[in-house]
Design a protein that fits this description.
This protein is an all-beta fold. The protein contains two helices and 33 strands.
């Protein structure tokens, strides 16, 4: 049976062809120093889903690569050939329920890996990985995009790994975590560190206050923070025909604060009113306080209530918020304030400043301040450059109907000052039913793109990406 879903319509719809295109048309002038590859990943299901609760987050991962070489650009896309993808490819149909829901999966695949490798791309230790938070990192070749499979790093990582690990610019290490590490709906979490050579230097286990979907976290020079918010997971609920992931508004939110290098028993849990964050921009500490920039919403966007009712779009608009934590305070209070009152998402920084006070941040937003209907929650047509040093914002908006992807910062060179470089971003052109790659001077967003790379095809709406210098 085929179910209708807005996550299978328009530019959410998958493309079912892998291709390579050389010599893409360029409008404007690409910087000669901009040489490298933009990788993006997103859900692109091979087959129509089996169940009515299909969600955008659940599709098979497809990587899109744009290689820049002295003003020329080539494009390539490939599915990540996970074991789930291969089983379904062999069968010629979907076998797994959404998020691996056993109630809607083919009995033949119950208990098998449901990994999709569809959420983020991270380069570390000379290796490239497609990540999603319910499975191990999935390695692929940076040039051919050929799948290399899930990696355990010497048998140390046996199950989950976040889609949003955090680099430490000083040590070259990569901090990571996992939620529901004991299986779906469990409170067990992991925290670990990969060293420069992708060896597991630390791996700890702790218990969260309840089983929540923890999509992102933050790290400063001195602390690691783990948010647990009321987007809960429940296998019991899923087996009763209700959503595996759902919003429980009667719960409070928690933030676990752990000093770097300390024993896991030093974790301190702070409480705050219910809210939800899919993505953090950055965090840093100074004068005994931790400051966090978060895309905060009243409830989780696009997710249902525990009884299966759809979520409320009016409550799901995320906005750029500042959280302040006084490490010396016994109250555990988290001070919160909105610093840009427009619906916004997909924040990025110059990652050489991760965990330090950053001057610039880039994100997508609805410049008119209005949240669209539930189908359009993740669709944004305006790019913002926020200069926190000068308290100044610049915005650039596409024509109505066109949609931007997450912005990615490209430094002019390794030693360039913060913000000295470009923003590269894909754009959906609704009227032409295809996509562009746009290049902006990073601190002159309002001036518009300096170049547009035109594709004859479309890139389905996806999640995150990374730039790897040539």
């Amino acid at each position: 049976m085929t179910f209708e879903s807005h996550f299978l319509a328009g530019n959410f719809a998958p493309v079912r062809r892998e291709q390579e295109i050389a010599g893409l048309r360029v409008i404007g002038t690409l910087p000669e120093a901009m040489n490298g590859t933009l990788y993006r990943v997103g859900p692109n299901p091979q087959f129509d889903p089996r169940d009515e609760f299909y969600h955008w987050f659940a599709g098979d991962g497809m990587v899109h690569a744009f290689s820049f070489d002295r003003g020329r650009v080539a494009y390539k896309n490939r599915w990540m050939r996970t074991s789930k993808w291969q089983l379904e490819n062999d069968a010629g149909k979907a076998l797994f329920g959404t998020f691996g829901n056993p109630a809607t999966s083919d009995p033949a695949v119950i208990g098998l890996s449901t990994g999709t490798a569809n959420t983020n791309v991270v380069f570390h230790g000379g290796r490239l990985f497609a990540l999603e938070e319910s499975h191990q990192p999935f390695e692929f070749d940076p040039l051919t995009l050929a799948s290399k499979g899930y990696q355990s790093f010497g048998g140390m990582i046996a199950s989950r790994f976040t889609a949003h690990p955090k680099p430490d610019p000083d040590t070259g290490e990569l901090h990571f975590f996992a939620y529901s590490a004991g299986g779906p709906g469990t409170t067990t979490m992991h925290y670990g560190i990969l060293d420069r050579e992708c060896r597991v230097a630390r791996l700890e286990t702790f218990e969260a206050p309840y089983a929540g979907m923890v999509h992102d976290f933050v790290a400063t020079t001195g602390h690691v923070l783990f948010p647990v918010m009321p987007l809960t997971s429940s296998m019991d609920r899923a087996m009763r025909g209700k959503p595996l992931f759902a919003w429980e508004s009667d719960r409070v939110a928690h933030i676990g604060v752990l000093p770097k290098g300390a024993d896991i028993t030093a974790m301190r849990w702070l409480e705050m009113d219910a809210c939800h964050v899919f993505h953090f921009m950055n965090a840093w500490e100074a004068d005994g306080r931790i400051t966090v920039h978060a895309m905060e919403a009243e409830m989780a966007p696009g997710m249902p209530y525990a009884d299966g009712r759809p979520g409320e779009p009016a409550k799901s608009a995320a906005r750029l918020s500042r959280w302040t934590i006084d490490l010396a305070s016994d109250s555990g209070k988290v001070e919160r304030s909105i610093i840009d009152d427009v619906p916004a998402e997909f924040p990025r920084i110059d990652e050489r400043h991760a965990g330090r006070c950053n001057r610039y941040g880039w994100y997508l937003c609805h410049a008119d301040g209005n949240m669209r209907n539930d189908m359009e929650n993740p669709l944004y047509g305006t790019l913002t450059c926020h200069d926190f040093g000068n308290r100044r914002m610049q915005r650039f908006s596409l024509p109505d109907g066109d949609v931007l992807s997450e912005p990615v910062f490209v430094a002019r060179h390794a030693g360039a000052d913060e913000g000295d470089g470009w923003i590269v971003i894909t754009a959906w052109r609704q009227a032409e039913q295809r996509s562009d790659v746009l290049v902006f001077n990073a601190t002159d967003i309002s001036g518009g793109p300096i170049a547009a790379v035109q594709l004859p095809c479309r890139i389905p709406f996806g999640f995150h990406g990374a730039w790897i210098p040539a």
